[in-house]
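Changelog note: in this version the structure field was regenerated for every chain. One regenerated record is shown below for reference.
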Amino acid sequence: MGHEVKVFASNLHLPPEGGKTTIYLGYGHRMPIDDLLDAKSLEKYEVILPDGTSRPIPAEGLGVHAAVMRLETPGLHRVVAVRRRMVFTYVFETDGNRALKRGGKSDHAGAKVDNATRYQDCGVAMIACGDAAKAPLPIGLPAEIVPLAPPAEWRSGRDIQFKLLVAGKPAEFAHVVAKPMGHKPDEGWAFATETNRAGIARLRADRPATWLIKATVKTPASVDDSKDFDWNSITTSLTLEIEP
């Protein structure tokens, strides 16, 4: 739990003429950095510009995969990281204890299997250059949290609406949590809510800060997939700057 990719940037709100920001990836329980992430696990790591074009970000080996970027186009830039799907299986060992093993049920055919889950996770950091007066549109990630208001309205003390999408469709009654940078305890969350039937949730940040918002959706596997795993679990996170 908690070992999902999270995207951070040293500067999430740039002036209208643009500026420099350093982006990097977090992995593990603590914000912003806990464990190092293996670049081989990344399916996608890129920046999406306001006009919808994208540029890949190089990543190699174990690390936080930092990159210094200069963003000059007015509007909202999104740094995106998507990890490859992985399957893990709980099996009962000879002493009766339950252990988590990499691979699906077919990889542990000789063991007593409890259940197996296919996991995927992705993260987005939103960097506003200038006023960024338009609310962002979905970008087609496996799962994403999309603000329904432009960055100028991301303010502390007021409700900010988000839509949670999984495979492009609203995720109803999903658990959503959020916390500002520096929140303690490390594994705690400052805010929790649930999406409605339209996949919409509201966050009221109690302070200006860099905030991380996270949601996980778990659904039963299809009949065909159930031969190798029982559940699909997808986690998505969003990092943004909430101002006074």
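Spot check on this record: The longest strand covers residues 112-129. The chain is about 0% helix and 50% strand.
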